[in-house]
Structure formats: C-alpha cells, structure tokens
Amino acid sequence: MDNPFLGTISLFAGNFAPRGWALCNGQLLAIAQNQALFSILGTTYGGDGIRTFALPNLQGRSPMHWGQGPGLTPRVIGEAAGEESVTLLISQMPTHNHALNASTNTGNQPSPTNGVLAVSTDPDAGGNPINFTAGTNVNTIMANNSIAPIGQNLPHDNMQPYLAVTFIIALEGIFPSRN
C-alpha cells in the first residue's frame, strides 16, 4: 500500500511490521509523537489519554465490526470479549437426566437385551440369577448415585479454526476525512 489511510489495519504475512506500520499488539504510543493517529483512535484501545494511547490488540482475537446487526447484540468499538478456553458449569448445561430406569417386578429374562434391571431371582439356585424384565415394565428410577459422575472439570478449547498472521496498523498515511 503506497498511501494507506492513517489507522488502517491490514493483514501481513511477515513476522514484523514494515516501515510506517506497527503491530496490533496493544502497545502504548506517545501522543506527542503520534497526534494524528491519536485523533483517530483516542483511548478506545487503552492509554491514559494524557501522555499515551494504545493500539488495538489483535493477539489471540478475531476482529469483528462494531454496532448491532439484525438479531445481534450491540458491540462497542474497542470492546473485547470471549475466552480461549472455558469450563462448563452445570448451570450452563441444558436440562437433561441420566436416570437409570428399573423395575420392581421380579426378573423374568436372563438377557439385558430390550430389558431393564429388575428384582433378581435365582429360580434354580444354581448361581444363574435372572436380573432383567421387559423394558415395558419400567416403574421406578434407581438412585442418582447408581450412575457415577464422570469428568474432570477441566477447561476445553473454545477457539474457532484459525491461521495466525500479523495484523499491522498504519502509523503514516493519508488522514481520513469524515465525508
């Protein structure tokens, strides 16, 4: 770009910022040396507004346009949100159950196929109990602790597929007119 607008953000495939550009890594710049860029950015991305202002920080972030589109929540320019990893809480999970259905009837089939747990019986006293009854005979739910909880409460990755590139911002260029 020969003459970008001052404050233009661009993608760059290198691992450095070319002359007249800076990395979009949230660094603080002196207002005194960058008055034109400060007049565009202000303290939207940080800084004290007296001596310093910050460049946008796009490290680990996906840029999005500010405002509110149809059916979307409003976003303010400079707003940062989201998490790279999250740990789901029980309160965030949809209502569901892991009930273990059973029957209080005496078991009448040796196989669990199409059956449910039932009151065990050993009609021949030979150690071959019958523990199941037809699945249509469900009339109780076993205790919650009959199914052990599983999981380790560790955060999981929350990132969309990505390719890391360099975001750069123009420190020099044409001052953009508003109209």
TrEMBL record:
<feature type="domain" description="Phage tail collar">
    <location>
        <begin position="7"/>
        <end position="63"/>
    </location>
</feature>
<dbReference type="Pfam" id="PF07484">
    <property type="entry name" value="Collar"/>
</dbReference>
<protein>
    <submittedName>
        <fullName>Microcystin-dependent protein</fullName>
    </submittedName>
</protein>
<dbReference type="InterPro" id="IPR037053">
    <property type="entry name" value="Phage_tail_collar_dom_sf"/>
</dbReference>
<dbReference type="InterPro" id="IPR011083">
    <property type="entry name" value="Phage_tail_collar_dom"/>
</dbReference>
